[in-house]
Amino acid sequence: MPFTISKPLRFGDCDLTGIAYHPAYLSMLVDVNEAMFASFGVTWKEIMFDRRMGLPTLSMNILFTKPAVYGDVLTFNVHVRKVGRASLELETVVTVGADVIWTIQQKIVLTSLDTHRSTPWPDDIRAGLERYLEPAADKKVI
Amino acid sequence: MPFTISKPLRFGDCDLTGIAYHPAYLSMLVDVNEAMFASFGVTWKEIMFDRRMGLPTLSMNILFTKPAVYGDVLTFNVHVRKVGRASLELETVVTVGADVIWTIQQKIVLTSLDTHRSTPWPDDIRAGLERYLEPAADKKVI
Amino acid sequence: MPFTISKPLRFGDCDLTGIAYHPAYLSMLVDVNEAMFASFGVTWKEIMFDRRMGLPTLSMNILFTKPAVYGDVLTFNVHVRKVGRASLELETVVTVGADVIWTIQQKIVLTSLDTHRSTPWPDDIRAGLERYLEPAADKKVI
Amino acid sequence: MPFTISKPLRFGDCDLTGIAYHPAYLSMLVDVNEAMFASFGVTWKEIMFDRRMGLPTLSMNILFTKPAVYGDVLTFNVHVRKVGRASLELETVVTVGADVIWTIQQKIVLTSLDTHRSTPWPDDIRAGLERYLEPAADKKVI
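Above: the input entities. Below: the structure tokens describing the complete assembly.
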């Protein structure tokens, strides 16, 4: 089962041609990523401030299929494709009604904020992420 | 020859772990894309308001190689990989000093703001884009 | 009764010193303003696209009392202080728990997107705004 | 003499009605504030990271006089109205050509990032700020 959350496209997310400004999509995605962790009880605030870990993104492959316009409600369906030692591969399909608007494959890594090196997922976070695990044999995240 | 422009990583571009916030990178890239068009004398304002055309992004493949921190000066080297009938493929290598920080392959399409369909590049814009044309036989933009 | 809505301070709303980035506060406020109109059944999308009206801000007086940090839940209490012919005066008190974090007095004007001149509030919007009307005899919005 | 700097209104700074999005103005102002400090040789990065000090804003009074549109070049004229023990009062007049677009009075305070209390301006920063000092007897920054 994917992690699923809906968000409206806000006034400030649109550009002057009336469609979504793509950096605003990425900002929405950061919120979605954050909400997925919170859904299993580990906030990014705790990860960053208490555990002194960061979650930098290594890669993102994005396909914009249809434009979204002001007022559209976007549903983010986040599929966990792989939980590595210290890495995480996500594939998110963003829909408006029945239409796919954009899709993104992300690779994230867990790092120590002190050493700036990758660090293995703590057991509780790994267990949380694996709730959403759905490997896609035929899909490859760069 | 690539189109080249440098921009400092601003205070507001950084997140609370002290590195660049990735949506801010994309916002910087929009400015860089805009500046490349202006470099050959066709502003986006003219394209959008006078010619009634838009420049939506179809795809972006991004690789984050090293983090950038507040105060770093980022140099964007934009290579035009292909100018299609109505499409444009760009590959941008972003450096701080001698280090590659991130790279992005983008595919953009020219559309009519009235019909919302793709429309061929006008000759003056095509000629401007082709100044920076450097096909990469071995590289593929999705 | 004020219009009241709560919003968490997101990761992307914080600066590298760990507190809220003030332009992010203003972006949250735009969402709050938009939500107040939606609460009485008139969306900004309808105002802008169907009725061809805009809602530019004329003035904002802001007092930042305490910093908010990542993860704080901000409650916006919006008091309508005056509904003029074509203008609107709002006073918003933003709290985290029992603490006032910041306050803002805003003056907004309704304009025609075609003539760019002020235009009187339509009756349905005026009625909606007046639901939240609480004149403050002793308070003056510039 | 004010500190003066010009910045174009970027594509991403405009909303879907075609004028500047006010949170984008505030983000531009942060850059202008930062540039004023850099003009006398003290970067915010040094203040924040080496000296462990922050520069939170206490108040902002903003008057929007005319809308700016995509492509306008905004000139920020920053007048230092007062340098207190640990505070700074600025008045910035933003123009496009001969027109005043918006004005802002800001009060900023220097704080310790460790104690979160106000801390006196170091001599070198005070000297730098005083280069731009132009008290306005008849103007009051809240």
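Note for the figure: The domain at 3-130 of chain C is CATH 3.10.129.10 (Thiol Ester Dehydrase; Chain A).
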